[in-house]
Amino acid sequence: MRLYDPKTIREVLSRNGFSFKKSLGQNFLINPSVCPKMAESAVENGEEAVIEIGPGIGVLTAELSKCAENVLCIEIDERLRPVLSETLADCDNVEVVFGDCMKLDIAEIIEKRFKGKKVSVCANLPYYITSPIIMMLLEKRLPITSITVMVQKEAADRICAEVGSRESGAVTVAVNYYSRPEMLFKVSRGSFMPSPNVDSAVIRLSVLDKPPVKVKDEEGFFTFIKAAFGQRRKTLINSVGAAGRWTKDDVKGAVASSGLDESIRAEALSMQELADVFNAL
Ligand code: SAM
Predict the structure, then answer these.
(1) 68-112, pLDDT tens digit by residue?
(2) CA of 52 relative to ligand 1 center, distance in Å
(3) What is the pTM assigned to this prediction?
(4) Residue 40 alpha carbon to ligand 1 centre in Å
């Protein structure tokens, strides 16, 4: 089936009485060139199994099914059950689990279905929950090699910015703590049905074996990073000092003992410098 064809999509959906739910970020891909490139990236390092979040009508799933030995999809919307039974009828290496990806135990799914296999994640993520899904996948330290995802262009720019550049933010540091992000390609808003108000981009996060810096307490480090970038135009001392957990004097001392200038802002610091200040705190 030509699952990227708007006419096919309309027919399949109306046959199954399905209407789009904006609240679930349901913008389905209608650009035929996008899915093969995403699927290729998902199996680039010989991955045998791919987990897809939010298959929708199954356009990316069908492409993944051609490239990987096994595909497991997690879809929150039960109304897509009959749709996917129809569209993926020929893909016998695909399993769809219905549930919220934020609530399901993905580590257990991997352990049960794909033990010993090289696994990656690939998805056209629902916009309303992009960063929480990415951080959940990384923070759980799942046994996955990479995450290839389509996100809003603005989110992609932020995630793929250099740590220590004006474009960086808390999410840049958090993602770089667990992975090596790269921008793959841009996707225009016209590539979706219905068309969203913003453009998108596909990024790839190659998961690191170990973090690039040593911090004394990971949870505390991420609290520090949120505070540091919370008021990005302020100095690090004022921004972290105002967040409540540390006093301004504590931060002043940590900045000085890390050999940094008092007027430094979070966005000007490297990963190592951020770790140094935090460890000193
Ligand atoms: N993969 C399809 C495509 O590219 O056309 C659909 C992508 S659409 C942007 C996002 C999909 O994620 C929808 O099918 C939506 O129902 C599903 N979704 C939204 N929130 C979810 C969640 N928390 N867990 C699993 N799936 C979710």
Answers:
(1) 999 999 999 999 999 999 999 999 999 999 999 999 999 999 999
(2) 9
(3) 0.96
(4) 20
